[in-house]
Every structure is written in C-alpha cells, then in structure tokens.
Write a structure and sequence with these properties.
This is Polysaccharide deacetylase. By secondary structure, the chain is α/β, with parallel strands linked by helices. Helices cover about 40% and strands about 15% of the residues. Strand 4 (about 125-130), helix 5 and strand 5 (about 155) form a beta-alpha-beta unit.
Length: about 260
C-alpha cells in the first residue's frame, strides 16, 4: 500500500465535509507530560511547524517550573490536570486506575483539588480546567465532585455518549470532550499502530460526527517511536491546510 493510498480516505472524508459546507474540529491531547525532554521538544516543534495547538495532560505531583519555563512562549499549548501522581490504586488483577473506588472518596477528591491548584499556579497562562484521568478511567460517582473543584470539562477515550462512556456522559455536569483516535499499539508492539488503521479510525470518527462533535487525537510523546512521529507529521500536513479541518485549542471547545 502506497502512502498516497493510505491517506486518500482521509482526504476524501474531509472533501465530503467541505462539499457539505462543514468544518471538522480536531484537537490533540498528549498525555503524561512532566518536564522538558527531547521527545517533548520534538512534539512542540512539530506542532509549531504546522500551527497545531496541543493540550498536554500534565501529572501534577511530578511537574515543576522547568516545564512551565519551557512553555512560556507557546500560547498555543494548554495544560490539563492528569490526575495527581499517575499511580494505580487498583488491586492486582484489575485494570490500572488512580481515580477509582478503591480509596475513600474524600482522598480522591482532595488529590484532584491539589492537582488543580498546583497546575493552575504553575501554568497560569496555559492552564485549562480539564480533567484527564490517568488510563482514561474514573469512577462515575466522582464526576459530580468535579465542578466543586473548578473543573469545567472531562476527557477520557472513546465516543462520548455510547459504549463504556455512556455512564460517564449521563452523570457529567460538565462537558465531556474525549479523544477518539489513539496512535499507540498498547496491546501489541507498544509502538505505532498501522498507519492505515489509524487513518481508518479517523475517517470513521469524521463520518460519525454530529453537531458539535470533535475528532480527538491521543498521543504519548514519551513512548513515540519513529513511526509515530512520521504519522503525526503526515497527519498535520494533510489536515492543517485543508479547508474542512480546524485544529482547535480545547479551551475553545469548552467555551463554545
């Protein structure tokens, strides 16, 4: 399969939206940021080259002024709250979860409050009141507490109002702005997924979009292989200049 044939379905999907007079909102969420690294610098340089804003899900317990200083000149980069310490409290045999029902409710809420306050203080020009649960998992009963902390939006993975996320969506008193396309092959090579499969997921999401829907791309800069970087570069190249695609800051998605 040639590179052109891999990417043509995405171009065709965007062309259909353009013909219909529509624009698709894309957004980029990158998880697990803590400090400046070579991988993070590469992500920041890539997004800057194509004028693609990015939302970094930052781990509050482990970050400090070094990352704040690195982002100072980048008004297109946002910082969201990635739990507290990215530590699983689930027992052996269960899926990793920091924000689960394995601890007292008060302990979880206090950690989220601490994470919110810490990141808002460290990143005043970049902070957005968005919670990104580690491993994209949160106990639904905790969601009602989020507005009392100051959160205005929640982001996990998958369709917002269907499948495993349906319960979260029903309980949410804040906006749910998810990611929908993951570039990583977590259950296999732990490198980049097949490019054609990622494109197919992106096209499927575009074709399913209703009013106000978005296409959320999920990345993890610390574990990217060269195939991920190549994919993102080509994705940005095909979409950033397309009239039916608009890369958005997540704060704009929260505010609209």
């Amino acid at each position: 399969m040639t590179a052109a044939s891999i990417w043509q379905p995405l171009v065709d999907a965007l062309d259909r939206r353009r013909t219909a007079g529509e624009v698709v909102d894309f957004w980029l969420r990158d998880d697990d940021a803590i400090e400046p690294t070579g991988a993070l610098n590469r992500l920041l340089e890539l997004t800057e080259r194509f004028s693609v804003p990015a939302t970094l899900a930052v781990i509050p317990a482990h970050t400090d002024e070094r990352l704040s200083d690195r982002l100072r000149a980048r008004g297109d980069i946002e910082v969201a709250v990635h739990g507290w310490s990215h530590q699983s409290h689930a027992p052996a045999g269960e899926k990793n979860q920091e924000l689960g029902a394995h601890r007292p409710r008060e302990a979880v809420v206090e950690e989220l409050r601490s994470g919110f306050v810490r990141l808002a203080g460290l990143y005043p020009a970049h902070f957005v009141p968005l919670l990104v649960p580690p491993w994209n998992r949160i106990e639904p009963n905790f969601i009602g507490e989020l507005p009392t902390i100051g959160f205005r939006a929640l982001s996990v993975f998958g369709p917002e109002a269907s499948g495993k996320n349906a319960a979260l969506f029903r309980r949410a008193e804040i906006k749910v702005i998810n990611t929908h396309v993951d570039v990583m092959d977590w259950r296999g090579t732990r490198g980049c997924r097949d490019h054609a499969a990622i494109v197919a997921d992106t096209v499927r999401r575009i074709d399913q979009l209703g009013e106000g829907g978005t296409v959320g791309i999920l990345t993890h800069h610390l574990v990217h292989d060269e195939s991920v970087w190549a994919f993102l570069s080509t994705l940005f190249e095909f979409t950033a200049a397309h009239p039916a695609c608009r890369w958005r800051k997540v704060v704009d998605l929260i505010d609209r």
